Amino acid sequence: MLKNIKSIFHYFPHLDRLLAVIVFCVSFTVYLMTLAPTIYIEDAAEFAAAVPILGITHPSGFPLYMLLGKLFTILVPIGNMAFRVNLFSAITVSF
Questions:
Q1: pLDDT tens-digit profile of 16-32?
Q2: In the 3-class helix/strand/coil scheme, how is the chain assigned residue by residue?
Q3: Which residues constitute the domain of residue 25?
Q4: How many Å apart are CA 33 and CA 89, to the nearest integer?
């Protein structure tokens, strides 16, 4: 069995990258189709309000998410702020 898998990767050396791209595209498409266009309930609303001002959410604060989300909302000026934060979440979760 393992020999067969190694032989497949021998003939298709970039198969793992192709599969990763396919999984990303499928998952991002699903997230994009179900994306909330505005503020939603609970944590989504808290993050949508905290990212533009680099605020602190509940105890851990999610500093990396806040910084990258702020950068994303500046660089991608489409829709309202809540949509941008939700889009950022969809992209990061798809990885």
A1: 888 899 999 999 999 99
A2: CHHHHHHHHHHCCCHHHHHHHHHHHHHHHHHHHCCCCCCCCCHHHHHHHHCCCCCCCCCCCCHHHHHHHHHHHHHCCCCCHHHHHHHHHHHHHHC
A3: 2-94
A4: 13
Across all residues in the chain, what is the average pLDDT? 86
* Closest residue by Cα to residue 53 from 75, 77, 69, 76: 69
Domain count, the chain: 1
Q: What's the CA gap between 24 and 79, in Å, rounded?
A: 23
Sign of the CA dihedral 67, 72, 73, 75?
A: positive
